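It would be a great kindness if you could assist me with a short task in structural biology. Thank you for your consideration; the sequence and its tokens are set out here.
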Amino acid sequence: MGDKRHEPRPFLGLHFDCCGVYARIYRTAKGDAHAGHCPRCLRPIRVRIGSGGSGQRFFRAR
């Protein structure tokens, strides 16, 4: 077996105000955004990754 170490997938933590729940959204395969949806009502969300962005990892989706 190889010595591959498991690297965690980059994510953002979101509190969805629509349903009052927390969820993680993960970086897309293309690497240009984080995308996901509310786990209750399935409201989609996409957060672009770019220069001049925020260093925060947790947000509120309104």
Observations:
- The chain has a mean pLDDT of 92.
- Residues 11-61 form one domain.
- Strands lie at 11-16, 21-27, 33-37, 44-48, 58-61.
- The CA atoms of residues 12 and 56 lie 8 Å apart.
